[in-house]
Amino acid sequence: MTDAAPTPTHAPIVDAHLDLAHNAVASGRDLRLPLDALRQRERRTSETAMVTWPELRDAGIDLVFGTLYASPAARVPMQAAGPAEAPASAAQRTDRAAGYVDAEGAHAQALAQLRWYESMASEGWIRIVRNRSDLGALQRERSASPSGPIGVVLLMEGADPVRTPDEVQWWWQQGVRIIGPAWQGTRYAGGTRAPGPLTALGRDLVDAMSSIGMALDVSHLADESLWQALERHRGAVLASHSNARSLTPTDRHLSDDALVALGERDAVVGLVLGNAFLDASVGRGGDVDVARVGEHFEHVRGLVGDGRVGIGSDLDGGFGAEETPVELSRGRDFVRLAEAVAAEQRASFLGAAWWSWLERSLPET
User: Fold this and answer.
1) What is the CATH number of the domain that holds 155?
2) What pTM value is reported for the model?
3) Does the CA dihedral 138-331-266-199 come out positive or negative?
């Protein structure tokens, strides 16, 4: 007999925040198309698509955190307009579906998106990763064949689809492993441009998440809610798509104190790639390069620690090719983000930090 061959491995590439289902269900994007075909179909001059399943595969991305994002009827802009820009008009937002006005409407949006992910899994585009066993199987598959299914961890961005805190258990059974209580303000928490604490429902929600092992995403939480949620939640914590407030001074991003606290909780922070999120002075369409990503990386790493900074790009999450660093014209340029950091940090930044977080945060089976 001969010894069994070792399991093939490779450095994983992970994007911890993509609004794939919202773009497919609410905006009608067929993400099974090659990116050039989708662009030809849409013919956009702003928010040009960067992500489809074939494009992610060509980029070598092994796993993404795919969101369930329910869009509210009353929305606040997440990115400020630059000095020479006007806010987006209603005509420029015609691809956005009518938003929800209550918990039932939010639930219906998220449920439709969940069913879309399930359909993509049944077609063989993705593998929904629910536990460490799934993660290990994905690693073996991706090591053997980069053209295989892409892993998806389900993340709910904004908790309004959870009609009552008791429903956390049901969403867990459906495969959701991470909940961010806020986007803007929700019934559960203060959020971006909506300061405030956890509500009574929010405290119950965080308790329910803790009891079942659901991870807490602090991205978009208002400061008061963030500190209360960190104190209350007993399980895994992350910031899926947030930058350093010291460099981009808006409440959309994390204060230095919050970053220190996240490091103490063994969290990972994913850097978000919209130009205005990286440099508020340029607005959405101004020129930013990946060196600015590196500045955020070094600042955040200095506070949370080595191996705790990754990418949560939010590509196509309300901004596209025109609104991202100049080196990034499409999803397959993802690996150019390695240019932003020192050689010894690249594997961690591109995916190993998130992979390690999943290995210690997902349930075993």
Assistant:
1) 3.20.20.140
2) 0.93
3) negative
